[in-house]
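Final report, Chapter 2: Outcomes

The project's central promise was a pipeline that accepts a single protein chain and returns its three-dimensional structure in a standardized token representation, suitable for archiving and comparison. That pipeline is now operational. To close this chapter, we reproduce one record exactly as it appears in the project archive, with the input sequence first and the structure output second.
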Amino acid sequence: MRHRVAGYKLGRDTEHRTAMRRNLAISLLTHGQVTTTIPKAKSVKPFVEKLISSARKGDLASRRRVLQAIGDPYLIAHEDDPDVVRNRYGEVVSAPRVVKKLFDEIAPRYADRPGGYTRIVRLGTHRIGDGSDLCVLQLVGSEEGPQVSGAYSRRRDKADRRMEYAAQQRRDQTAAVVEEPSPEEAEDPSPPEAEEAESSTETLQKDE
């Protein structure tokens, strides 16, 4: 029995679960909200709120505690972010940091709010494949993210490109079917020159 054992295992081992929680937290702090399943959202919600509570203190120990929890990842809002500098191979050379945004922008926003920095909004839709219930985990005050307002979203951009590619494939297949000759035309053995020769022969026979 799992008496006095809190938390969600989520069908993963410790390392996988820790990495997943860290990645979701980084995405939430970067974009303001993230779409995920309800168990994952309930798992990462207290983790993110503890990070924000530590960032509200603003001291060096709190910053080190946050760095230990999520590292010091780059803050990349989208692929064409002007603040991100890449080399000729596409590798990131310099970019803003998520931890700096947490301490400079997010934490001061909740200076007068003792907890409750995030909310879970159930979408009423299901994930294709396993039918899991989906929700939006968002920071309070960041309700204008890509999942709600229709702003730029990397996932939505990828889905649009896939739909455009599938539509182009269907158009190409339709054009190929239209260009193929029908069976009657393919089996017709008499070319136009042969028909003209037969008609001229018949005309000569009638004149004789």
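Archive annotation: Strands lie at 33-37, 85-86, 92-94, 118-126, 133-139.
This record, like all others produced under the grant, will remain available to the consortium after the project formally closes.
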